[in-house]
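We give this protein:

***
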Amino acid sequence: MLALPRESKQSRRELEVAEFWPHKGWLVLKFAGVNSISDAEVLVGCELQVPRSQRSELEAGWNYVSDLVGCAVLDHGHEVGRIEDVQFGAGEAPLFVVRNQAARLLEIPFAEAYLDSVDVERRQVRMKLPEGLLEVNAPLTAEEKQEQSQGTKKKR
């Protein structure tokens, strides 16, 4: 397993899982050679990567992030864009970072309520997004920018 610092100049570090156990809905990993809290704190925020050859088979309905990156997101059968990343920690549901055909990035919640199906072999995530969700990320029109600008001037 590799630990890859997200926003650091440190290089990758190979780790071996010595033990693991569930704790409050999470899985705690104890790595060989990491024997203190201060040793473990260096790993906070790292992305763990497992070589495909060593990955465990997941239960039905679960996917590895690496299997989702590159998949097309379809909303009611229409392609929205392709998944570039999956972000965790912004809320209850992870967020797909999707680049649409206009090269804009959209953040789409990977929530069970919106999910229709995931077909990793066909590289598709089928969703039924609520009306207006995709527009939340849309850039302001010239008219909206002008209205917003006028509203700011009135408050001064």
About this structure: The chain has a mean pLDDT of 84.
